[in-house]
Amino acid sequence: MRQIIDRQRDFFNTHKTKDLNFRKDQLRKFENVLRSNENRIFDAVYADFKKSSFEMAVTELALLYNHIKEAKKNLKNWARSKPVSTNLLNFPAKSYIMPEPLGVCLIIGAWNYPFGLSLSPVVAAIAAGNTAIVKPSELSQHTSKLMASIINENFDPSYLTVVEGGVAETTELLEQRFDKIFFTGSTRVGKIVYQAAAKHLTPVTLELGGKTPAIITKDCNLKMTVKRLVWAKFLNAGQTCIAPDYVLIDRSIEDEFLQRVKKEIEKEQYSIENDNYTQIINQQHLERISKLIDPDKVCFGGKIDTSNNTIQPTVLQDVMFDDNVMKEEIFGPVLPVISYSDLDQVIEKVNGLPKALSCYVFTNSKRIKKKILKKISFGGGAVNDAVMQITNQNIPFGGVGHSGFGSYHGEAGFKTFSHYKGILEKPTWFELPLKYFPRSSRKLFWIRRIMKL
């Protein structure tokens, strides 16, 4: 591990990665490598949890290609020094902010979207002019193996490389000094990463998770709400960090909502054979999710097939905040429904939980929308939709509090992997004598005047 990092640091210190043409060439190469290996990527992801090529193309590669496209298009502007105003005390002078790459970066990816969540940060790191070591999740083992193969065969390891392994290898990596660590995964592991980084004062971005609420009011468009909510929840069999984790529904429309949800799930015909469903990643996660399903509260679904690691899309009703299913992030195809009659009490309850990565509000009331968005803190979200905010490159993606900190996507990703140097540049033909010896009350008067003290 130390040798890999030392080689990358030596390469970074050649300043080659700071050249914009070099960065663009690497982005183009990165895209070409992915495109030329698409079929192998589809096969690897399917082998890990039976995700179809359609789902893989739409939910991972399309977004990844879009990240690359945006970076190539906007790189020159992102990397440009930005002028800022100069105060009168420094007259005559000019001031500007100059972005520079951080250096050697460690990117630890997640298994649920193995290519998208491991390689989207790589696009940002390359665009910002860094070198990178990628550690994909060992749980998606076929994907990890293929990722290592196609990247390590096409890129100089002193610039970009993939390191495979489990806890031991990750622990060894985290003992080394990096210039940036980017982690996507659980809050529990995020704390471990953060503690390891603190030993070296390494800046960290943590993309974690949490219990994302979907708040539905009685004046929403219920038909469209259900359609969008069901799609967002059961996409990737619920194994999505920004999926709606639970629903808060106005009691007056709860029955109709549950009926519509059941019909929508039946209409979608979720199954691996229909290319719109996936397995749970492994037996351990299957058992964990299964224990969260209270048979007495199953409104729909609930069937578990251990032979192929699947759980039928499941809806729970009459759920309370102190139920087991509400004590951890579900990360699976189980949707708890909690009814309410007082929206203010609901907001208070949500605010009593750790801050979520996302929040979704389904309402046609501007007043209610503003109230919820203003009073509930979360990473990012949507109004009258769910999950789709991730497709907009202009919206920074990231958490807050227990759901993480830092953000990426688009220019936000470039900033995450950059340091912004503030520069004051002065000519030598003039200098105000106010700061120099001898001191005087008149000089102090003018300093106060100039600084408006």
Explain what the structure shows.
Helix 13 links the parallel strand 15 (356-362) and strand 16. Helix 4 runs parallel beside helix 5 (114-128). The strands form five sheets. Strands 10-13-14-9-8-15-16 form a seven-stranded mixed sheet, with helices on both faces. It has a six-stranded mixed sheet with strand order 5-4-3-6-7-18, sandwiched between helices. The longest helix is centred in the N-terminal third of the chain and has 27 residues, at 53-79. Helix content is 41%, strand content 19%. With 453 residues, the protein is α/β, with parallel strands linked by helices. The chain starts with a helix and ends with a helix. The protein folds into two domains: 2-208 and 405-420, Aldehyde Dehydrogenase, Chain A, domain 1; 213-398, Aldehyde Dehydrogenase, Chain A, domain 2, CATH 3.40.309. It contains 15 helices and 20 strands.
